[in-house]
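seq:
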Amino acid sequence: MRIALIYPNLHGEFRPNLGLLYIATYIQKESHHEVIIIDPTFHRRNWKKYILKKIHEFSPDIIGYSCLTFNYYDALQINHFLKKKYPNTPALFGGIHPTLTNIKTLTAKEIDLICLGEGELTVKELLDQLETTKSLEGIKGIWYKHNGCIKRNELRPLEEDLDKFPFPNWDFYEIEKYMLVNPYQLDFLGSRGCPYNCAYCSNHALRKLLPGKYVRHRSPRNIIQEIKYNLKKYWNKGFRYVYFWDETFILKKSFLHEFCRLFIKEKLSKVLTWNCTARADLLKEEDVKLMKEANCNIIRMGVEAGDSYIRNKVYNRNMSLKSIIDAVKLCRKYGIANQLNFMFGGPRETMETMQKTFNIAQVLNPEQISLNIFQPLPATDAAQLLKKNGVIIQENCWIHMYNFYYKSVINSTYLK
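struct:
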C-alpha cells in the first residue's frame, strides 16, 4: 500500500510537523508499505500545482492529513481540491482537531475516515488491513463511514514504550530550508502528554478521551542516541540546536537530571545548545544549575495572566506569581534566557486584568516574549466556560484563524 501524508500548512508558522514525521518514519521502518510526506510550507504560492505533482508521481492508495484546529480548514481545502482529481482515493484525517471533534469531522462530506489519538500503530494496521481484507472493521483508533452510517471502532490505548518508535527521519522534509528559517534547529520529543489541567489547552480533553497512560517518557539514553544519530547525519547541513517540544520537559526530575548528565558525558554540550519548556513552580536551583552545565540556553515558561484570579481560577494554572518570579530569577542567576508566554482576552478578562498582564511582563522583562490571544479550542474547559456564560462560538470561526497571534474568534466587552 502507498500512503501520502499531507501537512496542510498553507498559512501557519514555518515549522515542520513532528507527529506526522513519527508516523511516516514508523511506516517506513516497520512495514513494507510506501509513504511520503507532502509539505506545501515552502510552496504556498503554487500549492495546488506542487501537491498535485507529488500525488501524480506517487499514486497513493490513501491520502492522510494531520490537523490542528488552526490548519483544519486548510486541510479541507486541499482535500476538496484533490477529491476532484482523485475521487476514489480515501481521505484519512488525524491529529488533535479530528480526535476532539471526531463526529463533526467525520460528517464532513469529503472525509472518509479518521484516526483518533496517536497514529503510528493505527496507520500501520490500517494499511495492513486494507491490503488484505479491504475492511476497516476492528482497527483500533479508526472511525469511518459505511453505507451512510458512522462506524466506531474501539479506541487504541496509548503506547507506553516510546523507545520502540524509530528516530524521526528528517529527510521526509525539506530540512535544509527549515534549518534556514529556524537556524540550525532540529526538533525532538522526550515525552508525550501532560498531567495538568490548564483550561485553554487540549491536553486535559485528550487525556479524558484516550485510553491508557497519558504521560509517558522516553529513556534519556534513547534521546541521546537520537541526537547523536542526527548530529552525524545533519552536521554538514547545519544542525547545531536541539529544540524540545515536550509539554513540560522538567516534569520528571530523574529524567531531566539523567538527560543532562548524559548530554555532558557524551560531550554533546560542547557542540550543541538546547532549549525546553518548564513549569515555573517545578523549577528548582539544582535543575537550573545542571541544565546550564549541559548548555541549555533558553527555558520556555507559561505565565499567561498577571491577574491571579484569571491565571488560577479561569485558566486553572494553579501557580503563584512568586513561583514565576523566583523561576525567572533562578534562570538569570545561571545565565539561561527565558521565553515567557502571555495570553489576553480569555473568559472574564477585563481591561484591568489585561493591564496586569502587561505590567508583570514588564517586571519580568524576559529575553523572549510571546503574546498570544486566547482562542477557545474545541472540547477545552475554557471553551465550555464561554458557552456556559452565553458566548457563542461560531461554527466557521476557525476558517481564517491560523495561530494565536492574529485576532480573537470571540467578541467580548473588551476584545473583538
